[in-house]
Inverse folding.
């Protein structure tokens, strides 16, 4: 089985980088992808999707150094899901 994705788009804001207690760097940033098409009336339509990206270790350090708001990036990785229960007791699933 394969769990892999590729996103090509623009970074929405500078990466937020922090270090875990072990010293491992973690970078978080969002990437926008855009789909453009013409509707049945010939009008041009556009849809923007935002994707959360989390990078660890060396990739986080590279993102910290080179990735900035507006950067055009290609990101490859795997999708992870996390389940949690919110303050109202509702079960939520987050995609990372």
């Amino acid at each position: 089985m394969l769990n892999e994705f590729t996103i090509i788009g623009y970074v929405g804001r500078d990466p937020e980088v922090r270090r875990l207690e072990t010293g491992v760097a973690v970078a978080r940033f969002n990437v926008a992808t855009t789909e453009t098409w013409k509707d049945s009336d010939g009008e041009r339509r556009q849809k923007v999707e935002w994707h959360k990206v989390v990078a660890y270790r060396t990739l986080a350090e590279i993102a910290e150094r080179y990735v900035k708001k507006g950067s055009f990036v290609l990101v490859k990785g795997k999708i992870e899901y996390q389940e949690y229960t919110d303050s109202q007791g509702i079960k939520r699933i987050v995609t990372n």
